[in-house]
Automatic annotation (TrEMBL):
<dbReference type="InterPro" id="IPR002347">
    <property type="entry name" value="SDR_fam"/>
</dbReference>
<protein>
    <submittedName>
        <fullName>SDR family NAD(P)-dependent oxidoreductase</fullName>
    </submittedName>
</protein>
<dbReference type="Pfam" id="PF13561">
    <property type="entry name" value="adh_short_C2"/>
</dbReference>
<dbReference type="InterPro" id="IPR036291">
    <property type="entry name" value="NAD(P)-bd_dom_sf"/>
</dbReference>
<dbReference type="InterPro" id="IPR050259">
    <property type="entry name" value="SDR"/>
</dbReference>
<comment type="similarity">
    <text>Belongs to the short-chain dehydrogenases/reductases (SDR) family.</text>
</comment>
Amino acid sequence: MFELHGRTALVTGAGQGVGAGIAELMARQGAAVAVNDIVAERAEEVAARIREAGGSAYALPFDVTDQGAVAPAVRAFERMVAPVDILVNNAGNGGAEGFRPTRFRDSDPADWQRFADINLFGVMNATRAVLDGMCARRHGRVITIASGAGTQGLNIGVSLYGAAKGGAIAFTRHLAVEHAREGITANSIAVGLIDPASSGRQASATVAMAKAIPVGRLGKPEDIGATCVFLASREAEWITGQTWQVNGGAPTT
């Protein structure tokens, strides 16, 4: 069950953290994986690690926010390797390196765009690049990595990030309905608190916040990767337009 042999997956933002975990698990289940990252060296490092473990992987660096770069990169990959059957829209962040939680009232309007660029328009750019091919073949899986901040109000200064992630969730729902009759499923994952050490960052406040998680620990990349493998598999073909809460029980729905 949950095998991906004969499928090709593109995972954006897969050079570290959750994205790397997703790419590695998909390869382990048999998919050929295009490892995308804005930093070419990170993408190649993860792809090499997958190959060393016996999987099939290719580095595919590009910036998902650069609409003019995404489609040509995907088309070149598909010509050389294989059409993309599975897209995992994982690339995203809090707006920029060094982001500080800020209430909306205190935010600078000049900062608003960057949250949408990566967390919403990046999703749209990558999806548009693979969608025509999926429709032509009448098969596709689109999985958007979102956040609990996109499904609930939080008093921790992430309103701009939450708005962009909420937009990505809404986009994915509409995509699912528009293309359900063409063999394409589209689902989102509202990710809870992930251990920042998986991306080489300091644990900081998240360790204390983890105490409030019912299962008693922070999430790991493989927690999200396993969900993606299931949603990409044949066994999940009747699941579309849904938002999966993968968060250790905080909150429950």
